[in-house]
Amino acid sequence: MFCAISGEPPVTPVISKKSGLVYEQRLILKYIQENGKDPITGDTLTEDDLIEIKANPKTVAPRPPSHSSIPSLLSTLQNEIDASVLETFTLKKAYDSVRQELAHALYANDSANRVIARLLWERDEARTALASLRDSMGQNGATGRDAEMTDANNASTSEIRGMPGSYIATIDETSATLSSTRKAKMKRKPEGYTQASSVSQFAQLESVPSLHTTRSPGVTALDVSLDGDLLLTGGKDKQVQVYRRSTGKTIATLKGHSDAINKVLFVRSLVGVEFGNISENGEVPEWAVSASADHSVHVWKADGNEKNAYSLAHSITSFKKAITGLAVHPSGLYFAAASEDGTIGFFDVSSGERLLQIEASHQYTSLDIHPDGTLLAAGTSSGSVVIYDVKTGQESASFSSESSTSVSSLNFSENGYLLASATSSMVEIWDLRKLSKSGTIAVEAADAKGNPLPITVQFDPSAQFLAVVGSDVRIYANKTWQLLWSSNDAHSAPITDCKWSWDKGALFTSSLDRSVRSFAPQQS
User: Fold this and answer.
1) Do 266 and 278 meet the contact criterion of CB atoms below 8 Å apart?
2) So what's the pLDDT on residue 71?
3) Closest C-alpha to 503, from 244, 230, 288
4) Total domains present in the chain
5) Rounded to an integer, what distance in angstroms lies between the CA atom of residue 433 and that of residue 109?
6) Which of 39, 256, 340, 364 is deepest in the core (most CB within 10 A)?
7) Are 425 and 468 in contact (CB under 8 A)?
8) Is residue 315 one of the residues assigned to a domain?
């Protein structure tokens, strides 16, 4: 037997009627006199609740010694030890109780902070919506219920680091030049460019197989040069490749990322460029950018050597999560990148300097820049699309999708009127003139196991067609959103990206089957 207080064998053992615990008689009596309860269970306890345990043989206690004797000193020391044991036991119980209360208080404080933060965010959102409603009612009734305008002076839900003034003039000049020539350019119907009447005759013209390595197979990102001769691809193998179609050779394999490539783009100016009239003559674009799941963006510069067309110029590592969106400004001088960490950066291509940063409560999943270069659209994991002013970083408008799944792809039409957004179950087209939805296309993409696949959308340079890829390839007519052509056997694995060429209006697609394929009207 052991005392429940001291942990030692008791000299005079007693047992509690209520708890059944064994105590040293002198210790438990002292504790009852001071506290009136059981030291272990905390229940009310009196001397009558204690039963002495009859031990056999029982040693007869000696006569009480005088205070001057050695036995008296020993007895005094024993009493002090007993008091220390009782005090230590009480302190341990109090310590455990305080720890539990402190933990509860910390959890309660954390929960309160979260609730306060959410309420503040909802309050700011309500204020923004109210301001939007007042503005829209004051202007006209054309604004759709799908769009929400935001007061430029209210940035309570995001932190903006504005762009230096020296770069704003270039953006304004590019916008003025492109917008002044766009209407005339869109009316052109150049000979040899894909027309609406010929889309039904689309067929596969070329297949570029065995791109990237077999260790981590799959082409995850694609871009095409304006003349359609160069393919820029990113893969699950963490590499970026440049392939020349005219020679059938890979002219560059760019290494440096430590995770799969999510986006790749050639950097080129669209000022003075007209679809159907391209004169690149196979020249390698001066710059290319790649974004990866390793949280970084790499900027590659052409060095004029056909055997090693590009070398690393800058590596941007300021993001904390995967880069999910990448877009090039039409001036060819800047590019933007969006990350799952809730930040968007706007960078100078030649220096790698960050000119603008937007930090918001969203988790960004896609990105595109308006053809005029003044607006930036970002898709989020909640299904909403947010449009920002490139020069100030302020939110200009937002669209709420019918789907609550993440926006996997965004693309502005070249005429600047429309924005297409894709989720796992639908494609929605937004009219930027009316800030309302222009159309909805039901599209569901799934792999062989039935798992949903991300959908990619891309307007062609003439703004006549919208390509939609996922598990198959589809081309829809602008305005009517009628299906013009589709192919269910374009690839043997999920399709990851698509791009139109500016010279002939051919459609290029990439896939996890390690191939890039091109589609165009079949010549009779």
Assistant:
1) no
2) 79
3) 230
4) 1
5) 47
6) 364
7) no
8) yes
Look at residue 455 and tell me if it is in a domain. Answer: yes
Structural tokens at position 477: 């007519």
* Cα 137–Cα 138–Cα 143 angle in degrees, nearest 5: 45
DSSP count for the chain of H helices, then E strands:
3, 33
Average pLDDT score over residue span 69-94: 84
**pLDDT tens readout for residues 451-464:** 888 899 999 999 99
Rounded Cα gap, residues 236 and 217, in angstroms: 6
- State yes or no: pLDDT of 280 exceeds 80: no
Q: Reply yes or no on whether the pLDDT at 339 is more than 90.
A: yes
**What span, in angstroms and rounded, lies between the C-alpha atoms of 130 and 247?**
59
**Residues comprising the chain, all counted:** 524
Within-domain flag for 103: no
- By CB atoms closer than 10 A (0-12, 13-18, 19+), residue 522 is exposed
**Nearest residue to 459 (alpha-carbon basis) of 487, 504, 429, 423:** 429
Whole domain around residue 385: which residue ranges? 198-521
Q: Kindly give, in sequence order, each residue whose CB lies less than 8 Å from that of residue 152, ignoring residues fewer than 6 positions away.
A: 389, 392, 394, 395, 396
- The predicted-structure confidence for 185-241, as pLDDT tens digits, reads as follows 887 778 889 998 999 999 999 999 989 998 889 999 999 999 899 999 999 999 999
Q: What is the pLDDT of residue 469?
A: 95
Locus of tokens 């492109």: 178
Amino acid (1-letter code) at residue 415? N
**Cis-peptide into 494, omega within 30 deg:** no
Two structure tokens written together for 230: 């160069």
- Tokens for 399, please give them: 């669209």
**Inter-residue contact 376 to 359 (CB < 8 Å):** no
Torsions phi, psi for 415 (to 5 deg) = -75, -5
Contact 429, 439 (CB under 8 A): yes
pTM for this predicted structure: 0.69
CATH code, domain with 345: 2.130.10.10
